[in-house]
Specification:
single chain; about 170 residues; 7 helices
Length: about 170
């Protein structure tokens, strides 16, 4: 955001999400992105260009978060598709890929990891294997790996409307 703002650039940032826009949608909300492109929604390039022009007005930065599995392509593909319609914009793209997995854990992360590790050892000592540990609030549970690998969690698409409300309050 800082680089985009200081140089009045429009950034297309690609994040993990080949089959689900979970990371992209949450990254868009957390970063204050102007748009998010996810596999669960069909991307209309014309609407995207209009949205960029209306929100950006050429005088400030924008960030568009792109899930790697978006139907219109990755960040570079999308940037190249909209570039002819945005000749006065300085367009850039970045592919975070697996680099986004890094970062220092928060206290919450460390406590959850410790609790899950303890739970895992307890399960193994009781002969429970081939299970994934789950967390639902404060409750830890188990889910068979076979189930976890075949079921996709549904993305909360109401977060798209939250992102839109945040944009209108700028």
């Amino acid at each position: 955001r800082d680089t985009a703002s200081s140089h009045n650039r429009l950034f297309f940032v690609e994040v993990m999400g080949r089959n689900s826009g979970f990371i992209a949608l949450n990254a868009a909300i957390a970063s204050g992105a102007e748009a998010v492109l996810i596999p669960e929604e069909v991307t209309d390039m014309n609407d995207l260009v209009i949205q960029i022009k209306e929100q950006n007005k050429g005088s400030r930065s924008s960030i568009i978060i792109v899930a790697e599995g978006d139907d219109a392509g990755g960040a570079q593909d999308i940037m190249n598709k909209v570039a002819p319609f945005l000749p006065n914009y300085d367009l850039r793209y970045s592919v975070l890929g697996h680099m986004q997995r890094g970062g220092a854990p928060s206290a919450f992360d460390r406590i959850l990891a410790t609790r899950m590790g303890d739970f895992a050892v307890e399960c193994i000592l009781n002969g429970v294997t081939k299970q994934m540990i789950t967390s639902n609030g404060e409750l830890l549970g188990l889910l068979p790996f076979s189930t976890s690998m075949t079921q996709n969690a549904d993305l909360d698409l109401s977060k798209l409307s939250l992102l839109q409300r945040l944009l209108t309050q700028r």
